[in-house]
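Lecture notes, unit on protein representations.

Consider one protein chain, 414 amino acids long.
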Amino acid sequence: MKFWKIFLWSWKGLHRILLIVAIVMSLFIVLFTLYNNHFSPPSSCARQSPPPVSPTVPTTCSPHWDLLFLKTHKTGSSTLLNILLRYSERHGLTFAFPSGGRHDFYYPSFFSPTFVSGYSPSSCFNVLANHMRFDAGEVERIPPRERLYFTILRFPSHLFESSFRYYGPIIPLTWSLPGPDKMATFLHQPWAFYRPGAFNAHYLRNLQFFDLGFDKDMDPSHPALPGILRSIEERFSLVMLMEYFDESLVLLKDVLCWELEDILYLPHNSREQESVAPLVPKMEELALLWNHLDYLLYRHFNHTFWAKVETFGRLRMAQELARLRWANAKLVEACVEGGRAVRGGLVREASLRPWQPVGGDGTIIGYNLKHGLEGPQRQLCQDILTPELQYMSRMGANLWRVKVWAAVRGILRW
């Protein structure tokens, strides 16, 4: 009798699991049918003819339209993506979106042109800017082959803290970490928990070096490293730094020959400040030791960054910074209700509500649009406040997989 009770209890439990799986799969099929509308991008890139003449930009300078932005993780890159989406939409540029209903180019796989929605050997895209694991040879197969490359880095200990908090719930290696401070436990004995080939392990070590297409577990004393750093410097016209975001934008504006209005911004995919716990000195030291390749990468491009600032001119940089910060302050005043960001759950309009990570407690900030805006001003404000997923959808990206995942998370309250 006891055996039958156990059997029936086990069967009922299995029945419940199967029922949940059936419901989720049914939802997946329904949403796939609703959202999987094929997106066929234009087959040719936008071209300037003749180059636009501007009173504030020298006539010898023509805006760059063919771009690759390597969107690194947890570096302020979502803010830059908003800038690129706005610029592309305003100028009619062809934006390469990921295929398969994804928001990234099948990351963490190495990039392939087949990951681009609508790709064919004869197609052409002005801008590539979604998350990818960089592969120079594969990127160069996307016409036009002459494009300007840029990316952004962040100080490695700060990036590690952000990545660990943001991605931790989807990294199985972290699930068994004991103690109230999982990150501290990990950093004190990383090799007790870390497995190089484990699922999502790339988020735990030298993430920027990995995004650039290199081995995150390479020995930092490897003789190939100086050549790797030189190859990145030669390929990328600008490597920005998150810690000097405004200075980076001023340099980017100069490199791309853009206008001040093109680089105005509000931070996207950022945590509210109260949820950020600064690393104590010991944890910072351990994080830098564990992410030493990223540290060497950052140190190299910190040097090249300030060399570019010197070439640009310190006085000129100060003047440009003042203009940018004044314009951004006026933007917040004109567009944002209350003049400040709010928790994502407090954003009223779904079209402006930011994506929240699994287990993130809703700490990613968003913005409420100021009441009473009309016409072009409302459109400008809406564009600057719109998170990347909604903006991509608006421009034609088919994000059915993201929408299915969002629906499943809503059902599971995850």
